[in-house]
Write a structure and sequence with these properties.
Length: 152
């Protein structure tokens, strides 16, 4: 079994927000999407799609058939190893079509899973937090709290 390390970055925002996460190669495309969403504390309660190599993975409901692309694959039926991903390949994910959160999901490495670690995955290995990034951009990281001490 292989372990895929991805860097998932929120795009089209004025802040940098990214997570590095590791998942197993038999993870479905849908579960990768939910891992990305969970890593940024999104509820996963909205629709999403993932595009890779001109293939679109998306759950299509009866009400959506008029708007759906001609060819669309069910993300819960395809695993990452079936996509034949290579290091540096990128997947594009759109979440919550009203708010349009867009993620770039780049494959950074593929390694063999270490024996005895299968319950370890999925796993976030590194991250830049939204609050920290907003503070950095606005210079708030230089401000120290000036609230009175209410202890005692």
């Amino acid at each position: 079994m292989q372990v895929y390390k991805f860097k998932a970055s929120l795009t089209d925002r004025n802040v940098e927000l990214w997570r590095e996460l590791e998942v197993l190669s038999n993870t479905t495309v849908a579960n990768l999407a939910y891992c990305v969403l969970a890593s940024v504390d999104a509820s996963g309660s909205h629709l999403f799609n993932i595009d890779y190599n001109n293939n679109r993975f998306e759950f299509i409901y009866d009400e959506m058939e008029d708007f759906a692309p001609a060819v669309c694959y069910n993300p819960s039926l395809y695993t990452l190893d079936e996509l034949n991903l290579n290091v540096n390949d990128e997947l594009k994910m759109e979440y919550d079509y009203g708010a349009s959160w867009e993620f770039n999901i780049k494959l950074h490495s593929v390694n063999e899973m270490k024996k005895g670690t299968h319950r370890h995955y999925p796993y976030i290995t590194r991250e830049v937090d939204l609050i920290e990034e907003i503070a950095r951009i606005n210079g708030y990281d230089q401000i120290t709290p000036t609230l009175p001490n209410r202890a005692g």
